[in-house]
Structure formats: structure tokens, C-alpha cells
Write a structure and sequence with these properties.
With 147 residues, the chain is α+β, with helices and mostly antiparallel strands. It contains six helices and six strands; from the N terminus they run αββββαββαααα. Strands 1-2 form a two-stranded antiparallel sheet.
């Protein structure tokens, strides 16, 4: 483990105790540091957590208080479930909502049109090329709640 620690920290630009400590090596497409450990690519922030705080329980995520994917400062890292991580993202306003979500089938404008329409859910579904159930969830404000 000592050798891993030395190799790991040599790839980190450490700042002050409250600053982000930036990863200086390989990253994935989202900016998360990557490091090979025992021939397996691992998230560098997870290694930082393990080195400084101990094992990560199965099913747990290592989350960032600072929301900086390349940060390795253990003071900025905390454990949470996937739901905790997603809730943190939403609470901090980083979640892509509505038409900014890459999986959205409708625009904000179309959702407003759907809510204002007196047509049946079935007809609206056909008009907008989506399932009737989706129209119902929009009308009941179960989804697209930001509008």
C-alpha cells in the first residue's frame, strides 16, 4: 500500500487544507481522475478516500462536497449512496432538468403547450410523439416540475 500511496500522491497537486487538490494524470470523460491499481482502472477519488479514511463499503459512492471531479482532497470527500449523490446534485442545482437533460423527448415550450391544452392525453401523446402515460405525468406535475 505504501508504494501505491507514493505513486498516487505524486499525481496530485496539493493545495491548502481547504483547497481542492487537483489530479494531474489521466481522467475519464467526466473529469474524474483514473489510476491503475492491480491492473484495474479505478477512480482516483476513491483511492484518495481509501488511503486516508479506510475501506469503502460495498454499494457506496465517494462524493465531493466541492463538486470538483478532479479533487482528491480527503476533506472534500464523503461517502453516500447513489441516491445521496443524486440528491446532492439536485440540491446544488447541477442536475440537468427538462430539455437540458440529454434524454428529454420534449422541450420546455412543448410541456407548457401540453399543460395548457384541453386535448385528451391520448391525442397529445400522438401529437407530440410520446406515450400517453408521459402526458398524464406531465399534466399531474409529477415530472417537469421546474415548469
Amino acid at each position: 500500500m505504501r508504494r501505491l500511496e507514493e505513486r498516487f500522491w505524486s499525481k496530485v497537486d496539493k493545495g491548502g487544507p481547504d483547497e481542492c487538490w487537483l489530479w494531474q494524470a489521466a481522467t475519464d470523460g467526466w473529469g474524474y481522475g483514473q489510476i491503475k491499481v492491480a491492473r484495474k482502472t479505478r477512480g482516483a477519488h476513491r483511492i484518495s478516500y481509501e488511503i486516508t479514511k479506510g475501506p469503502i463499503p460495498d454499494g457506496m459512492c465517494v462524493c465531493h462536497h466541492c463538486d470538483n471531479a478532479s479533487c482528491m482532497n480527503p476533506n472534500h470527500l464523503f461517502l453516500g449512496t447513489q441516491q445521496d449523490n443524486m440528491s446532492d446534485k439536485v440540491q446544488k442545482g447541477r442536475a440537468a432538468t427538462g430539455e437540458h437533460n440529454g434524454r428529454a423527448k420534449l422541450t420546455d415550450y412543448e410541456v407548457r403547450q401540453i399543460r395548457a391544452s384541453d386535448k385528451t392525453q391520448r391525442v397529445l401523446g400522438l401529437d407530440f410523439g410520446v406515450d400517453q402515460a408521459l402526458i398524464g405525468r406531465i399534466k399531474r406535475r409529477q415530472i417537469w416540475t421546474h415548469i
